[in-house]
Design goal:
This protein is an alpha/beta fold. It has 11 helices and 10 strands. The strands form 2 sheets. The chain has an 8-stranded mixed beta sheet, sandwiched between helices. Keywords: Membrane, Transmembrane, Transmembrane helix.
Length: 319
Amino acid sequence: MKKISIVIPAHNEQNNIHPLVNELQKVLNSTGYTFEYIFVDDGSKDNTLNEIKIQSEIHPEVRYLELSRNFGKDHALQAGLEMATGDAVITMDSDLQHPPEMIKEMLRYWALDYDVVYTYRAEANAHAKKYQRFSSKMFYKGINMLSDIELENGIADFRLLDRKVVDQLNLMDEYEIFFRGMVKWVGFKQKAIPYTPANRFSGEASYSFFKLIKLALNSMMSFSVRPLYAVTGIGLFFSLFSVLYIPYVFISYFFFGQTTASGWASIIATVAFFGGLQLFVLGVIGMYLGKLFMQAKQRPNYIVRSSNLVKTGNDLIEL
């Protein structure tokens, strides 16, 4: 009997743990597979960890990792993937917006020899705020234009990964992780299925607008050097454009007797524009250098504070 690991990162989700486990139990008990649930508490400030511990006492297949602080969702996913021992791993959110009943459809495609079964929103998320829908749309347009991968609009962290895909992902030693892009990058036989997100059962999303901007920038630069080519092209364009100023100077001097350009406002505007452009180009280069600096430190992507399991080979041993 094949085993399925379900990795669920959780950050301040105390009211969602019990309902989620109940829904998963209803769906999975009739699938013919064995399951393990690996909850990763990503530095929660509420009683999320206690709720997970209660569920682990009721259901022996529930395991948990408590991270020492909030490392971010992708790093929490990495921690769960590295501890998962199933023949396939399913990742999903803990707020019940990812419908548990879709797991059966994922398993059906997995049985048809698909290595990756991932989901994307079938339509605009009506439950999200306007700025979240707009920023999400711009994010996917930007990453598809500036990176070497292509992501569907609304692609989610609700996916099934075959063991061989998980093994490849675990080999990647990267400081800044973007799993949605990494899963597409590794290739294999993939199947996309649409889903309609449900209402969040409880709590508020922890991603702010500025966190989304940071995520977008990091994601675009993690899979391509096209931003460097883009700013190089911008610099080259304005350098060539400035050459056109030379004929203007000669014409003004020989035909109109003007030795200096009139108007200080246009000069100040030009200096300010090119000064801002230079800072922008330096900023892009600096972000790439910053990524190299953080990668060279080789700090761990996460630290486990406590857990009820230990991994030995391909097996998990409960403490």
